[in-house]
């Protein structure tokens, strides 16, 4: 995944720090160089890298640790705080005001940035939160752009307003007129270019003037490199960008350029695209993002994903059963379904506080993901009685389930072993305070820093 190398490098810096006996200027210089190498290799702007690392060095050598905080913990805290500040300080999502109806969001960007796909993700995000959403296609240059937007809208079940015959975006917008008044949110797709030409600037300005958007979001692809800073600056000057969405953060690109571009314009990153599915859009939270890079987790993003994967009633029922110590194969099946909706296991694990300190190899997590897929076939071959009381599953039943699911007997035994281990953990949780448990698991993961 994108920025894996940056995260691994920064975790290495932390490990070097925690293994050191003393904190001195020589160690700080080494750490600063390691941070510089990590950021530069991820395509972060050179000038910005040196500004950031100079702050880290200055604070590390000049500040005294507060009472009860060791010098090591204080340096870790400084690195964390400066990285959070660098990536935007605080979460800057978009709240759709009920007083403004409809609320208009216009997306701009170059060809290939992922504007249309991102519009589908935004539509899904806000419709899941009870908003009535429509999408409007004003890209009159790219062949079949209106058809792609219509397909994206149908996939996420929102209304679309497109017309492939009209070639003037201003006339096209006027033709939709009052049809948009019944929506809470209208997402506007605009044309892109291979480069930010004079014609594109003129068109963006004319469209912006007629649409009067509440937000203008620039979509930047994670694979753009250090050119992201120049693009962000030019679009900001052309149309007054109010925020940035970084797309394709699930790829193999370095991504640091697009993430640091906002430091040039002052327009904050508001969302990040972390996968191909409509659900793979997150409000960008610098604290949580840096937490994931450093292996400290992002509990807020984890809970947000869980809300999207499990409805409130199901989540309440599941939590009650777990806290009462009750757990069977049906519960395990439901958990696996929810986990699948939340995305790849490796992504979920990096959000769990403490899990980053466990250094679980990615191939192990991928293997576990494959196992979970196989286990679903096995559970589909069990009777209701067996799902409710797994102790009934003896040798004869195992053979029948293996034949019915097309899996080996070893796979069934592996599933039952996993179930028994999970049940033990559930019993440990019985009657316990979830917050205390989370702290305990965090310590198990090796994270003992006092932030």
Low-confidence spans = 437-451
SS summary, helix count: 21
Beta-strand content bin: 5-15%
CATH architecture of the largest domain: 3-Layer(aba) Sandwich
Radius of gyration over all CA atoms, rounded? 25 Å
Largest sheet: 8 strands, mixed
Integer tally of domains: 3
Structural class: alpha/beta
- Intertermini distance: 27 Å
Helix content: 55-70%
| CATH class label of the largest domain | Alpha Beta
Strand order of the largest sheet: 3-2-4-1-5-6-7-8
Can you characterise this structure?
- With 451 residues, the chain is α/β, with parallel strands linked by helices.
- The chain folds into three domains: 4-86, Up-down Bundle (Four Helix Bundle (Hemerythrin (Met), subunit A)); 103-285, Rossmann fold, CATH 3.40.50.300; 299-444, 434 Repressor (Amino-terminal Domain) (Orthogonal Bundle).
- 56% of the residues lie in helices and 9% in strands.
- The protein has helices at 4-18, 25-40, 46-62, 71-86, 115-127, 145-156, 169-176, 198-211, 227-239, 256-260, 262-265, 286-293, 299-309, 312-324, 329-342, 345-349, 362-380, 384-388, 395-405, 409-429, 434-444, and strands at 103-108, 133-137, 159-161, 185-189, 215-221, 243-247, 269-273, 281-283.
- Strands 3-2-4-1-5-6-7-8 form an eight-stranded mixed β-sheet, sandwiched between helices.
- β5 (215-221), α9 (227-239) and β6 form a beta-alpha-beta unit.
- The radius of gyration is 25 Å and the shape is flat.
- The protein starts with a helix and ends in a 7-residue tail after the last helix.
- 38% of the residues are buried.
């Amino acid at each position: 995944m994108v920025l894996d190398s940056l995260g691994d490098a920064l975790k290495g810096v932390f490990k070097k720090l925690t293994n050191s006996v003393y904190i001195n200027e020589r160690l700080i210089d080494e750490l600063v160089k390691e941070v510089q190498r990590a950021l530069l290799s991820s395509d972060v702007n050179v000038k910005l890298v040196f500004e950031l690392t100079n702050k880290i060095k200055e604070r590390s050598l000049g500040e005294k640790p507060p009472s009860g905080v060791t010098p090591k913990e204080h340096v870790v805290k400084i690195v964390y705080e400066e990285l959070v500040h660098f990536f935007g300080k605080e979460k800057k999502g978009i709240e759709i005001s009920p007083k403004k109806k409809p609320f208009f969001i216009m997306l701009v960007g170059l060809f290939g940035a992922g504007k249309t796909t991102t519009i589908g993700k935004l539509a899904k995000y806000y419709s899941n939160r009870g908003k009535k959403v429509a999408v409007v296609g004003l890209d009159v240059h790219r062949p079949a752009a209106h058809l792609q937007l219509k397909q994206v809208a149908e996939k996420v079940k929102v209304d679309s307003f497109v017309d492939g015959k009209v070639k003037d975006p201003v006339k096209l917008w006027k033709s939709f007129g009052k049809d948009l008044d019944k929506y809470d949110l209208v997402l506007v797709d605009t044309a892109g270019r291979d480069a930010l030409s004079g014609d594109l600037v003129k068109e963006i300005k004319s469209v912006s003037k007629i649409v009067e958007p509440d937000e203008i979001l620039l979509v930047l692809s994670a694979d753009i490199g250090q050119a992201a800073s120049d693009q962000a600056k030019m679009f900001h000057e052309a149309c007054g960008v109010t925020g940035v969405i970084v797309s394709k953060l699930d790829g193999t690109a370095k991504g640091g350029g697009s993430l640091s571009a906002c430091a040039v314009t002052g327009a904050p990153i508001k969302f990040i695209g972390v996968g191909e599915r409509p659900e793979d859009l997150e409000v960008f939270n610098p604290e949580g993002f840096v937490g994931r890079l450093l292996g400290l987790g992002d509990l807020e993003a984890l809970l947000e994903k869980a809300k999207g994967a499990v409805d409130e009633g199901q989540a309440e029922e599941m939590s009650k059963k777990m806290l009462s110590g009750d757990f069977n194969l049906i519960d395990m099946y439901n958990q696996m379904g929810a986990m699948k909706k939340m995305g790849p296991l490796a992504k979920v694990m990096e959000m769990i506080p403490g899990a980053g300190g466990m250094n679980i190899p990615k191939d192990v997590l991928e293997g576990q993901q494959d196992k979970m897929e196989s286990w679903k076939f096995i559970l589909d071959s069990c009777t209701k009685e067996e799902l409710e009381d797994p102790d009934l599953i003896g040798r004869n039943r195992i053979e029948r389930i293996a034949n019915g699911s097309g899996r080996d007997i070893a796979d069934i035994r592996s599933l039952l072993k996993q179930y028994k281990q999970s049940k033990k953990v559930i019993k440990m949780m019985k009657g316990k305070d979830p917050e205390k448990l989370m702290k305990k698991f965090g310590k198990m993961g090796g994270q003992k820093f006092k932030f």
